[in-house]
Automatic annotation (TrEMBL):
Gene source species: Lederbergia wuyishanensis
Cross-referenced InterPro entries: B-phosphoglucomutase_hydrolase, Beta-PGM, Beta-PGM-like, HAD-like_sf, HAD-SF_hydro_IA, HAD_sf, PGP-like_dom2
Cofactors named for this entry: Mg(2+)
Recorded family membership: Belongs to the HAD-like hydrolase superfamily. CbbY/CbbZ/Gph/YieH family.
Lineage of the species this protein comes from: Bacteria, Bacillati, Bacillota, Bacilli, Bacillales
Source organism, top-level taxon: Bacteria
PANTHER family per UniProt: 6-PHOSPHOGLUCONATE PHOSPHATASE, HEXITOL PHOSPHATASE B
Annotated EC: 5.4.2.6
Protein name: Beta-phosphoglucomutase
Catalytic activity: beta-D-glucose 1-phosphate = beta-D-glucose 6-phosphate
Amino acid sequence: SYKCAIFDLDGVLVDTAKYHYLAWKELAGKLGFEFTIEHNEMLKGVSRMTSLDILLEVGNMKDAFSEEEKVKMATEKNNQYVEYISNIDESEILEGALSLLQELKQKGIKIALGSASKNAQIILKNVGLESYFDVIVDGNSVSKAKPDPEVFTLGAKTLGVPYEECVVFEDSQAGLEAAKIVGMLAVGVGQKKDLTNADVVYSTLKDFNIEKYF
Ligand code: B16
Ligand code: MG
């Protein structure tokens, strides 16, 4: 059976995608184009600067800015996002997440965070989930973005658990691909049609059968 559970944050444990969306939409508005909720799907699990590149491509402004200007825009977006998440609380925790974390803890399973976000710590703290994690790996601790598996392997290594004994919970194709590359069980959280890289898919964590895997 598995010894370690690694969780993605945004889209798996908490519903922060809507705040990312609002902040990106505002930036697009300032640049003079529409950024829809469908466009926003492309930013799931993707790093901040890559997200900006995708957004600029949507607005046909791919080569319109210098690196310095892009860093400024990304910072502006992030300031807006940080303002949104500064007020969030436990009501933003997604269905089934809290009870799964509690059950894993009771069973003595190691728990890691594997998120691309540089804001992961503050989000966990505000929703009150910080204490469940034995290790937190986020956008500040790794340099390579998913589908590079670094964000998951660093957690496993820190906890001393072989990769094959880890289960990864992810809502993005890139994250699921990353998990599989290193032989971790890739559990998709969301819709089966979107998560073709997963070994198994559950629509929410509430449906996950803990006894089957841990
Ligand atoms: P930040 P995850 C990801 O979090 C988000 O899904 C993605 O939309 C975001 O661009 C990325 O974090 C970086 O976030 O700008 O806060 O550093 O799904 O990997 O937990
Ligand atoms: Mg995610």
